[in-house]
């Protein structure tokens, strides 16, 4: 029992296991500290970017509002239409519709029937379903 030591009636390993365990604990603590600092840095960067975005939006709003205000000052109040009684009393002339209407179709009924018959002969099959 070279590596064991008696302390107050108990047995304790005094070898490399305690030192290895302590080293592993320290490494784990460093690892978690590293992760924690990474999260904090990421959150700070997000907050900075959000603040910059908010400032940019506010700046654009102020710029837009000041530009609108300047435009209103520079331009007169706008054109206001005015009507007089004579505008409504004049006779309105409408265009007349054409006296001769064009025919809706250039084919007469015999030509249409002949065309249908020719198509039917060319197709060769009657695909109409009848009861």
Automatic annotation (TrEMBL):
It comes from the Eukaryota. One of its GO terms (biological process) is regulation of systemic acquired resistance. Pfam families: NPR1_interact. Residues 17-26, 65-74, 110-131 have a biased composition (Basic and acidic residues). Residues 1-26, 61-80, 105-131 are annotated as: Disordered. One of its GO terms (cellular component) is nucleus. Keywords: Nucleus. InterPro entries: NPR1/NH1-interacting. It is found in: Nucleus. Belongs to the NPR1-interactor family. This is Uncharacterized protein.
């Amino acid at each position: 029992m070279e590596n064991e030591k008696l302390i107050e009636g108990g047995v304790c390993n005094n070898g490399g296991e305690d030192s290895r365990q302590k080293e592993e604990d320290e490494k784990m603590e460093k690892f978690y500290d590293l992760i924690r600092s990474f999260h904090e840095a990421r959150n700070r960067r997000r907050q900075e970017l959000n603040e910059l975005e908010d400032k940019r939006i506010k700046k654009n709003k102020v710029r837009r509002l000041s530009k609108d205000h300047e435009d209103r000052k520079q331009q007169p109040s706008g054109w206001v239409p005015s009507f007089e009684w004579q505008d409504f009393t004049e006779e309105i002339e409408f265009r007349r519709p054409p006296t001769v209407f064009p025919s809706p179709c250039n084919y007469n009924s015999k030509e249409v029937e002949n065309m249908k018959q020719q198509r039917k002969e060319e197709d060769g099959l009657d695909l109409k379903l009848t009861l």
